[in-house]
Amino acid sequence: MTDTIRESENSENRIGRLTTHWVYGALPMAFLLILFAPFVDGVALPVYLSLPIYMLHQYEEHDADRFRISINLMLGPKARGLSHASVWIINVIFVWFALLAVFFAASANPGWGVVAAYLMAINALVHIVAAVRTRKYNSGLVTAIVLFLPLSAWIFAVQPASLAQYLAGAILIVGLHAAIAFRATLPAR
């Protein structure tokens, strides 16, 4: 019986470590993915680069748990805020896997690459608005401006997207950000 309890505790500890320290795998993985960029052809290249560039942004944003802590302080104790698990889900599932899916979709139809551009551009806009509103740096601001804005512009410039793809991308990414904000601002349990 105690072995089963220990195994369960060890499993929970592993999951806790994964959801708490995930960002430290993003930095070396970003550089590794950038090394593969020369093997990606033409129009697909900026969409491919969105994942490693996003990982560099995540490192600036989440190193030392800065983003989660600052959001939770801003929202106050009455709001649910962000847990380590929710930050992991947002950044790994809804960013890494989503950008991988966008890359594959854009490989079949390049217009879907605009989804990656919207993900970065809207995130950058949120960082910039927050910085203007608070008149101070927020974690992720530098890479949002220096990396996200030029890469988003590049994707928008070279991806031959239809109006439907532009609308679908914008609605999807605004909806994702709205869902995250809604969940984080719910009353604490």
Structure description:
The chain has 189 residues and is mostly helical. Helix 3 runs antiparallel to helix 7. The chain is globular and about 50 Å long. 79% of the residues lie in helices and 0% in strands. The chain has one domain. It is built from eight helices and no strands.
**Sequence stretches where pLDDT stays below 50 over 5 or more residues:** none
Give the ordered list of helices and strands.
HHHHHHHH
* Count of individual domains: 1
Rough outline: globular
The residue-averaged pLDDT reads 94
Distance between the termini: 32 Å
Class computed from helices, strands and strand pairing: mainly alpha
Strand content: under 5%
Q: What is the number of helices?
A: 8
Q: Roughly how much helix do the residues carry, as a percent range?
A: over 70%
Radius of gyration computed on alpha carbons: 18 Å
Largest β sheet strand count, sense and barrel closure: none
Strand count? 0
